[in-house]
Amino acid sequence: MAEDTLRQVEKDFALHGIALLLNINDLEYPKIVEELALEMEKIQFIESPKMRAILYQIDLNESDLVANIQNVNAQNTYLFFADKILKRCFEKVIWRYKMRNQ
After folding, report:
1. pTM, 2 dp
2. 29-42 vs 77-100: helix axis angle to the nearest 10?
3. Domain ranges for the chain
């Protein structure tokens, strides 16, 4: 399901014209978070005018993000967003599997 989750992340970004190519060989969650954070930093996701639309597309709770990001060290901002995005995309994949198998 890790591969499906990564493809979901790529799809959500692609819908807004941002190509992410997540070639992750190590499927340990902390490594995946780090890799996504690095890719997001490369495209300057936080400064992007598309950020809000992408977070909306992914369906992240904005008030939850605002409440929790205040406790995040500035150096870990991309890790914070990568973690939230991956967890939400994983939920989407799980729901897709559940709905498909009903």
Report:
1. 0.89
2. 120
3. 2-100
The 10 Å Cβ neighbour count of residue 48 is 14
- 102 has a pLDDT exceeding 90: no
Q: Which of 11-25, 41-55, 82-96 has the lowest mean pLDDT?
A: 11-25
Q: What one-character-per-residue DSSP string does 19-62 give?
A: ------S---HHHHHHHHHHHHHHTTGGG-TTHHHHHHHHT--H
Burial (Cβ within 10 Å: 0-12, 13-18, ≥19) of residue 25 = exposed
Residue closest to 46 by CA, chosen among 77, 83, 72, 88:
77
Task: Report the amino acid identity of residue 30.
Answer: P
- State residue 57's pLDDT score: 93
